[in-house]
Amino acid sequence: MTTIGRSDLEVSGLCLGTNVFGWTADEPTSFALLDAFLDSGGSMVDTSDSYMAAAEGNSGGESETIIGNWLADRDTRDRVVVATKVGKLPGRTGLARENIVAAAEDSLRRLRTDRIDLYYAHADDPDTPQEEYLAAFDELVRAGKVRAIAASNFDADRLRSALKISGRDGLARFDAVQPHYNLMERDYESDHALLVETENLSCFPYFGLAKGFLTGKYRPGGGDVDSGVTSGRMAAARAEGARSYLDARGERVLGVLDEVSAAHDVPVASVSLAWLAAQPTVAAPIASARTLDQLRAILPSMDLKLAPDELTALSDASAR
């Protein structure tokens, strides 16, 4: 278990992403995924009030609603660290105080709980003074409705500025960050890692499997892959994003992943996540699953410890 930043929240080595809930995973399937994750030692789920507003027929909040129903049905609230986000729900974008406070109440209602464990600013809001939104988050923390706060998709300068303001004004400070980071996307290491380490923050990378590429299912000359995405536009975008990694570097990474996977007799996806979990400042990578088979492919990452030479081989293969 790992402690999030300076908070008292402890989490498992894998965070279950739930952006597929209410989209490519219906409620019964989502319940089964959550049950299996918890039974396997998982303890943290990541959602947002905007999941999955982009899907046809959805308006946002579907993922939170399913999680809330599961927490109530299974009586598991005290066994799970729930992270959600504010700022990207259509019609409720940005980090103005009124928006944060209202959005938090809506998330609490959908999650059927009295507190959000980790509350993210889903993205920075350059149109709202940082003092304003940090004071709003602080208000929620002092009211006991939020236990810790975090920043997703912040550049390093704005993250640094927010931390400085929190310290200066005695406000709740960010305890975690959620950046785009995986074996194929490593800008975080040069842009944020030192600041995150210095400020004792925890990193929860999203797209830990590079839109499915790091599961090993996208290969040179391979045919179409079933992404489970029903929208033609969204399916095409996801496949295009994954296939964009199929260059010489990507093939090199897949080759090393295959070797390490065979050596440990675990799925490629778990090796990819284990490399990420082993990186400095990373508390737990975020990965989602829409089927139990997909979940089984990532669960071994929680206990998989790669040898130093394996970590180096993967890092070298993915270097630009």
Automatic annotation (TrEMBL):
Protein name, UniProt field: Aryl-alcohol dehydrogenase-like predicted oxidoreductase
Q: Which species does the entry assign this protein to?
A: Pseudonocardia endophytica
Question: SUPFAM superfamilies of this UniProt entry?
Answer: NAD(P)-linked oxidoreductase (SSF51430)
A Pfam family annotated for this chain is Aldo_ket_red
What cellular component terms from Gene Ontology apply here? cytosol
Q: Origin, by domain of life?
A: Bacteria
Annotated NADP-dependent oxidoreductase domain residues: 14-316
InterPro entries documented for this protein? AKR_Detox_Biosynth (IPR050523), NAD(P)_OxRdtase_dom_sf (IPR036812), NADP_OxRdtase_dom (IPR023210)
